[in-house]
Amino acid sequence: AADLAITIGSSLQIVPAANLPLLTKKNGGKVVIINLQQTKHDKKADLLIRGYADDIMRIVMNKLNILVPSYTKPVVRLCSDNKIPDSVNLD
User: 34-62: b or e for each residue (b if 16 or more CB lie within 10 Å)?
Assistant: First the structure.
């Protein structure tokens, strides 16, 4: 079992994954829950942080002096560079 379970941005509703923090706690480990909303396991957490996962992780990474690269949305092309000929000879 883990010494520490950190759950980030999860409602902890879907099993079996939702039970992993409880398994850690049962075996003497600590549980951290980082989530915007309440979860059914909040009372069992050793540390509970309310906030957006991105914001909290940005703060943690900053404290660890780890650069977080900026996210750029992917560009999707809705047209093609290929040309369709006006007529096609099938002979």
Answer: bbeeebebeebbeebbeeeeeebbeeeee
CATH of 4-63 among 3.40.50.1220, 3.90.226.10, 1.10.8.60, 3.30.1330.10: 3.40.50.1220
21-69 pLDDT, tens digit per residue, is 999 999 999 999 999 999 999 999 999 999 999 999 999 999 999 998 8
Model confidence pTM above 0.85 = no
Residues 6+ apart with CB under 8 A from 39: 7, 10, 11, 12, 13, 33
Angstrom distance (rounded) from CA 61 to CA 52: 14
